[in-house]
Amino acid sequence: MNLDDAIGRYMEQRCRYRRAAEAVGKAVEVVAKFEQIACTVTAREKEPHSYLAKVVAKGYTDAWRQVTDKAGARVIVTRASDVDAMTQALEQSPLVSVLRVEDKRQVSDPEKLGYSGVHIQVVAPEEDDDSETIECEVQVRTAAQDAWSVVSHKLLYKPVVQLPPAEQHAVYRLVALIELFDEEVERLMNVLPSLPGYEHQDILLGAESEFMGITHAQSYRQLSVIILDALGDVIPHDEGYPAQLRAFVESQQEELVDVFGRYGPGSAMSAVPQYTLFGQAESLILLERMLAIPFKLKEVWLEAGLPLEWLRTLASVSPAQLDLD
Amino acid sequence: MGLASLQVTSLAIHLIQKSTKKTPTAPVLSEALTPLTDTSRAFLEDRLREAVKRARPVVEDDDLGSKVPGLVRKHLTHGQNLIDTSRELAVLLQLSQAGVSPPGLLLVADGTLDGSAVLVIAKLEHERGARAQQTKNAEGKLIYGMEFLQDLFFTTGSRVYKVAIFPVTTVAKGSFAGSVVDRQSPGYGVAEYFIGEFLGCAFAQRSDVLTETFHNAAQSFIDSVPAPATKARYQVALLSEMMSNKGDLSVSRFAQDYLDTDDRDAFAAHMTQKSVSMGSVPKDVTLVKSHLRRVQLEFAGDTWLLAPPRELEEGGSISISEVGDGKSKVEIVDRVTRVSGSGSVKPASGSESTG
Fold first, then answer.
1. Do residues A211 and A281 touch, judged by C-beta distance below 8 A?
2. Do B264 and A295 touch (CB under 8 A)?
3. What's the burial of B339, exposed, middle or buried (CB within 10 Å: 0-12/13-18/19+)?
4. B37: closest chain A residue by CA
5. A256/B3 Cβ within 8 A
6. Among candidates A256, A267, A321 on the partner chain, residue whose Cβ is nearest the Cβ of B252
7. Residues B131-169: pLDDT tens digits?
8. In Å, how far from its chain's centre is CA B327?
9. What is the dihedral of CA B15, B20, B21, B23, to 10 degrees?
10. Cα separations (Å) of A298 from A227, A241, A289, B352?
């Protein structure tokens, strides 16, 4: 099909390709969530001027069939290993039908610079009026690969002027930097779970988010880690606990806003040492725990040698019976 | 009661003096409300909340003829101002107070509990303490000077207070009810002059009924414990607690003193589910006497063992240990004095048997 016919047909069917991209994007989100791969997914149909430019630049002879990214989705993952994990998950998922996988990270030509993740061609979910199979290109990248992709287009593939040797060298340095960035992210993400306090990360982030909503203030994270470390298995470290804490906060929202307004950050009591916990996000966890397992909490708190007065003052706003006299 | 349910809005304080019936003394009355800073209000609320958690429900006893219920009702439902109400209460408390009762402060506070208006009446005794302050001595050397203070009150951990709280929600209904705690009084009672003569109230629940509820709830928890040796140990503990000289029963104390760490929270949750107060309850074993004479052990092989609780305690003649597979070994080291039922065994005098 020649370019004019292809562009005309695309303009007629553009909405269909938008729906195809969105449907694939949603399916990819479901797969990522199921596989617990942290990512952001965006989906779009190709801009007509971009379509035109691609056909001309690539010298396609069939302007319809050779443009395979009329619908596209982009998946930005946190770490380099997640690119492989996401690719594998999509290949194995019954939610998407994969036609082919192109690994753009493979070094086929040492002279050619490239660092663009993986492109996966999938079949979009069919609609009743479809006259042919609609494909969608899913690009899986790290944030660094994505950044390089954007910049490299301007520097390498579409330069109006030829880069002098010194600037070409600078481009090599940039690619090296991007690769190093992803490698270091991967290394740090691998080290993170072995660091002290890591096991509290999800719980503390959840508590901090709730605390921020109630007090509009941040708490002192180092103290939070010390307290959560000391509490040990008083705090459930299963995945369900952040949701349990959120449910507790939601059920007591009005009272918590009132209590922290009177004793928390910015209140007259915020400078009183006994009220320290009212300035800390983990106070929400403690209030929830003292209702659920008051004896265990008291025992562990005393064993840890944490200030009893802190807990006693916090317990005074709770109906829980801690018997700390 | 929800989070931070008790809040104080205004406060009046008066001095109750030591007096006798023969030579009555007037209280020293404030002429205006006590100003509350944010910090003093927070401290007072904190202390009152701790007290209220331990309070027991009371209802008006018409036979006692106290003027306090009428006064509290008038205050909460007709909006009498706090200073007038509190001055009248101070006079009534001074009149009710027996000669042996120590002087103290009467705190009367308007506040809210779970969003509804309440009147708090508290009698607090003066406490003594010391304060260290950095200073310099005559030679100009840095020291910590010590100052003796005898006008402290309601200190953290203090037990010298009596607190009553009356919510408008119950007072306005016609039935005058509230709750009272007296940390000084043994066995979670309340000094008679305070609850009866002054407040004109009596406890809403009988001690023997509360004791029976506690016993039955604790027993059902013990019945649910799967390990036989642990179950037997808890059983002995319950009997021991019931027969001790302590004047009260406390879920918290029982859990702390007798139960394994991992069982304490489950026990507390079970007791709450069975409507047992988390605060202490006065003990009166009248209704549970029949349960306190023997511990009964039943075995899968249809063997029964009845024993006095003391024999299962440490140093007693019966010991129980786990042997795995859900089985236990029960060992009795004692003299067999009599065997009854079918068959006939006549033990030799002074013989010792292990079973």
1. yes
2. yes
3. exposed
4. A268
5. yes
6. A321
7. 888 999 899 999 988 888 877 777 776 767 889 999 988
8. 39
9. -90
10. 13, 20, 10, 47
Tell me: pLDDT of A253 over 70.
yes
Helices B251-258, B261-273: crossing angle, 10 deg rounding? 160
Contact between B3 and A259 using a beta-carbon 8 Å cutoff: yes
pTM: 0.66
State how far residue A275 is from chain B, nearest Cα, in angstroms.
10
DSSP A13-35: HHHHHHHHHHHHHHHHHHHHHHH
ipTM for the whole complex? 0.72
Q: Show residues of chain B in contact with A256, CB under 8 Å.
A: 3
Residue-wise burial string across B132-150, b where 16 or more C-beta atoms lie within 10 A, e elsewhere: eeeeeeeeeeeeeeeeeee
What amino acid occupies position B310? R
pLDDT band at B239 (very low <50, low <70, confident <90, very high): confident
Rounded Cα–Cα distance for residues A147 and A141 (Å): 10
Grade residue B231 by pLDDT with cuts at 50, 70 and 90.
confident
Amino acid (one-letter) located at B281: V
Q: How many residues does chain B have?
A: 355
DSSP single-letter state for residue A277: G
CA dihedral A308, A312, A314, A319 (to 10 degrees): 140
B→A contacts (Cβ < 8 Å), by residue, are 1-5, 37-39, 42, 45-46, 49-50, 53, 156-157, 159, 251-253, 255-256, 261, 264-265, 268, 278-279
Tokens 């944490």 sit on residue: A306
